[in-house]
Write a structure and sequence with these properties.
Elements lengths: L5 H7 L9 H14 L3 E5 L3 H12 L3 E7 L2 H8 L8 E7 L2 E6 L2 E6 L2 H8 L2 E6 L9 H7 L3 E10 L4 H13 L2 E7 L6 E6 L9 H13 L8
Parallel strand pairs: 1-2, 1-6, 2-3, 6-7
Antiparallel strand pairs: 4-5, 7-9, 8-9
Helix pairs in contact: 2-3, 6-7
């Protein structure tokens, strides 16, 4: 049975200012109920993890993989995860480091690739980390080979310049379609579809842009 929408508000109550907005929670809940993904990937764990788990429980179960570099902040929410007995939930502690890759100079989750490879393919990805000043470009680039065909990606805080830049870079690297975008939903929302899982394509523009962001204009990510 699908839980009442009011339960989402209960899940998000008494949380810090960085908690996912109620509007975004409704989007995540609705997408899972409609798409019925077998496996969900999340960058940035916390109350949003409970929203995802609750929706997976409502469709009969599934797998939730949450990648987080500061797991101590997610622990209060994850202590409640045991109530979702039909959800295989795993919190992955992954450090963040600034690294040069074929896509440029990016803040990357270390060791997350092995975890994603063992728990995909992911039909839904929610990106709410790393912190905005670090840039979220690397998340979808890292996850792309482990997606299910036609995977849906939800990016939070999408009204910010850095997130808008990340979307443009993903569009250069992957076969991405924008399904919905609004700066008025929560702190901004973009919903994307990735047609096929594959390694992201190289782009000189992206490579140079990431160097510009993190060396010339740090800490903001505003270039293309």
């Amino acid at each position: 049975m699908t839980p009442p929408a009011s339960h989402l508000k209960t899940l998000l109550s008494s949380a810090d200012k960085w908690v996912v907005s109620l509007q975004i929670a409704h989007v995540l809940d609705g997408l899972i109920l409609h798409l019925r993904p077998a496996s969900v990937l999340e960058f940035g764990a916390g109350r949003s993890s409970l929203v995802l788990a609750q929706a997976l429980q409502a469709i009969g179960g599934g797998r939730l993989t949450s990648i987080e570099h500061q797991t101590r902040f997610a622990e209060p929410a994850w202590q409640q995860m045991e109530r979702y007995e039909r959800v295989d939930a795993q919190l992955i502690a992954a450090g963040l480091s600034l690294r040069v890759s074929r896509h440029g100079l990016l803040h990357t989750y270390t060791g997350a690739g092995e975890a994603m490879g063992g728990r995909g393919p992911f039909g839904l990805v929610f990106i709410d980390a790393p912190p905005g000043h670090l840039g979220r470009d690397a998340t979808l680039l890292a996850a792309a080979p482990f997606l299910a065909p036609g995977a849906i990606v939800v990016l939070d805080d999408a009204a910010r310049p850095g997130e808008k830049t990340a979307v443009r870079r993903w569009e250069r690297a992957l076969d991405v379609e924008r399904l919905y975008e609004s700066d008025a939903v929560g702190r901004g929302l973009v919903v994307l579809r990735v047609a096929q899982p594959r390694s992201p394509a190289f782009s000189w523009r992206t490579f140079a842009g990431t160097i510009h962001d993190r060396v010339i204009e740090r800490p903001s990510a505003t270039s293309t």
